[in-house]
Amino acid sequence: MGRPRILVVGAGFGGVECVRRLERRLAPAEAELVLVTPTSYQLYLPLLPQVASGVLTPQSIAVSLRRSRRYRTRIVPGAAIGVDTRAKVCVIRKITGELTEASYDHLVLAPGSITRSYDIPGLTEHARGMKTLPEATYLRDHIIAQLDLADASEDEEERAARLRFVVVGAGYAGTETAACLQRLTHHAVKRYPRLDPGQIRWHLVDLATALMPELGGPLGETAQRILTRRGIEISLGVSVAKATATEVTLTDGRVLPTRTLIWTAGVAASPLVNTLEAETDHGRLVVGPDLRMPEADGVFALGDAAAVPDLASGRPGAICPPTAQHALRQGRRLADNLIAALRGRPLEPYVHKDLGLVVDLGGTDAVSAPLGIALRGLPAQAVARGYHWGALRTNVAKARVLTNWLLNAVAGDDYVRTGYRAGGPPTLREFEFTDTYLTPAEVRAHTAALRARA
Fold this sequence. Notes:
Layout: E1 5-9, H1 13-25, E2 32-37, E3 41-43, H2 48-52, E4 62-64, E5 74-84, E6 89-94, E7 99-103, E8 106-109, E9 113-115, H3 123-126, E10 127-128, H4 133-152, H5 156-162, E11 164-168, H6 172-188, E12 201-206, H7 217-229, E13 232-236, E14 240-243, E15 247-250, E16 255-257, E17 260-263, E18 267-269, E19 280-281, E20 284-286, E21 299-301, E22 306-307, H8 324-342, E23 358-360, E24 366-368, E25 375-376, H9 377-391, H10 395-411, H11 428-432, H12 440-453
Helix pairs in contact: 1-8, 4-5
């Protein structure tokens, strides 16, 4: 018999951390490592708003998977679109569009999450997300294009609509997105003498009754005061009723003429979860404290796609929040448990207490709660950027990010468009390829055809 094959799906925080630990701690003869991902980089997602605002270049947060002294994992360039746990086969759509499959002895599911959308008229056609590198790159081009078009327009209504920006979702991602992009327009408008800075309007909208409830009351209120002082209009307790190419209607009846709707209202587990016909909790795969899926031989799951019991919380039935912090540590625990399984040793449960959140609002504005200590302003900014800088996996990525920060602080931005997606942006579904997954019946049919060919 050959080496057992460990198949890892997803190159997010959890998947990459698991692979790197396996490379370090497993001898090549003990297992074959295979990673399924459509890109050859790990996206450092928390810094995505800084790419959209032009503070960082896209390459600086796209951390190469091949830059490793111990690199020996075979990378399959594609996306897993179905899993047959009985046949132990994963169906993969390669970046060329062709379907292939990969068998496994042990499967690690770390496919992450997608932007959560709702059945709101016009939402998927006219809203743009902030979940992928192409989306961040597109948004920067789009916002600068609105300034260009407003500057060239002689129609006051069109100009006002192009200078109004709506962000839905006042959680961590939405708040940072609104804060960073507002700074982009605040500084860019100085290069447009025909535009009135007072016409630029930013709206942050959420059904929740508090800004960033995960931060806690006092810090969330501080962040709200900072954003309000900078001119961002915050509407809580409301959401979007419908959207068109030229306006957004809110659930309180207000109609906002705008050409920019940014949707960051939560995440949902990858559609891959639905192909397994396994038990879920709020859409996430149910796993035990040791990260194994019950009744699925050799299958583990972690990160945003898994409902991992939060043993450190002390609350019965609590599951870990879908944060990068938990995904990283789950990746390490899962790797150690895989090694234990290969070597016939007992598996251990995942236990980790959340270390707090850091929120970078751009410039010298930030709020943070490391280890429960509330920080504001420059100290919070230092903690936020220090944490993100230290979490980058390679020294090259750290050097690029630090250089970008220093260059932006000294020289500023030129506010130029690259022309990316000039012919029109994809929809939310097209940006995140959520329509490419198989149904459970299609997965079974595919594996049955595979057996017949064999």
